Amino acid sequence: MDYRIEKLIKSLKYERIVVYGTGINAERVVDALSDRNIIGILDGNINFGYFDGVKILTIEEMLLQQPEAVIIAAQHSSTLSIYNRICKTCMEHRIKLLDMSGNDLFDLVDNIEKQKDCFKKNIEEIKREIDQHEVISFDIFDTLIMRNTLFPEDVFYIVESKVRNRGNALCDLRNRRALAEQSIDCISPNIYQIYDAYQKREGFTSTIKRILLDYELSVEKAVLIRREDIVQVLNYAVSNNKPVYLISDMYLPKELIEVILSELGIVGYRDILVSCDYHQTKYTGLYHTFMDLYPAESYLHIGDNAVADGFCAKSNGMDVYIIQSAIALLEKSSYGFMLKKQLSLNERSMLGLLIAKIFNSPFSLYGSDRRPYVDSIKDISYLYFAPVILKVMLWLMDKLLEGDYEKVLFSARDGFLIQELYDYMRLTRNGLPDSVYFQASRVLCARAGLSSDADIEWMLSAPFDCSWKEVVKERFDLNDNDMLDEYNSEYNSVLDYAMSHKDKIYKRSREIRQNYNKYMKLLGIKEGRTYAFYDFVSCGTCQYFLNNFVSFNLQGLYCGYYDSVTGGKRNVPIEALFVNQNYFQRETAFFKRYLLFERIMTSTASSVISMDTCGKPLFSEESRSLHELNMVKIAQESIKDYIKKYIDSLYVDGSSIDVMFVDALFALFSLKYTNENCEEFEQILLVDDFGKNILKITREELQ
Length: 703
Known about the structure:
Distance between the termini: 64 Å
């Protein structure tokens, strides 16, 4: 006899019973309860006739019979849907609803629903639950470990892409693999059985089968990470001498899961029960098998699925503690709208990386107003800045492949991190030009590229808080001996004063230009060739002044471009990922907060201001503190970590990433969506290298 029916018979105390169902389970229940008063049968599809000698009733007919209880004789996977169909009617007429084990479904479902409240759960609560139970079991996937992908099936799409890139034709891996699995005549087949059936169905060779299998396993391993707080909970249980077991519905057999867990540093459990090893699922008896193997007075099962880990475990007499998966937390959070914005596999993977970080802990929304907490520059850089930089890199490489460039010049200092990432990512694509870290700044380029009185006027347009003498000396790199008396009555403005030094200004400009050209020759930059010129956010100032004297061509490829200037800069060839037509109308989240980017994208070296006679760069004094420089390093390492994870494990050629999608990800940094409390941002000071203005990033700018 089915163990559930045995339990039902022992617990049943009702006399007037209706059985819901007309399948094999219903037949077994009716036969087992032949000595009881079964007054009718209910079924969602049939409402007349007889089943196993018992009359089939409509809902209305059942109510006239005044039953005490309805037993839902179905598998766990169907029980809840039937419950939802009839629970309101039964509740209104005070009819008990039972599952095949005799459990009160009203109590059971209510308990599970309460378990789903992620805003009231914390790690100390789950530890207290562990203290009160003899044996502890954990679900594995989405509980102890999780994928960096948004959806589990995205693994198959990534595998398909990697196989195609290797030159093997493959179509619709996910669905065809699923059809092969369905053709296997057993419950929960393992991955080897699935691929045997897949090979048979599709007719490919054993070599192809091996390639596909190996790719799936390698991708699966690459995207799996620990859920740190739950691993901590497991370690807590082990350290308190609780027998810990792992239970999973999965096609990977025990020996493979053991390897995965070992590589992730998850140890201390006593055994793993996997559905494909027992050909039983959590719905069909895996919990019962577990309890037979490891008898105890009390059990606590911890998992993320309200049905498989909650309802099914509870139905077998186990206590449960339901946590939320990362995607479930995403849906409940202020970030939930992002699920509707992703339109491609690559965008899903970007969202997957985000939730794997911010919702890694199932307790991340505890006590919140739906806005997750973020309090470190490391996490901020990873979550919000890195996706934008990734898009910049992919866009830049596409643009470079479209053109014919000798090399790409990454302008110092904002090109520092981008060059490092470019050199890493170009290994994945053929045909990309070599990179050069190119010393350039507005100060240096303007000093070297002066060509008109209008340029002199422009260089004086930035605000200053010193004397005319000091500002002219500093802006044009003049010596003390060159400076005239600034208090002469003929000077009505700083421009008048500067123009009295015009010959000396142009002479010094020619000297700097000559030294700058020496620097370019040392870099191997050739006359008449075309070079891509990368800058972060600019209106083209450096490129404009360089064009006044260099003997090669420059094509600007910028992250952001303010297309709002008149005159000569209009003719500077520039393409950009983000374009803003009006400085005062910042339409994108990126342009609203790009000053934050500038602080962490830069080199930790100081800004170049001139060149010596040998063509070697001369730098300004460093204005940043050691703390600020360390903050920059932390932010950049976090961005590199994100991009390497994405490129190595998740990126798929041919799948698009829309610029507005990454802008939406960056917008999540706003206090509207995030409980951001990173004190380091309150300390950020930006120094304008031209005007020496200090710009503080205020909390209001993070809105």
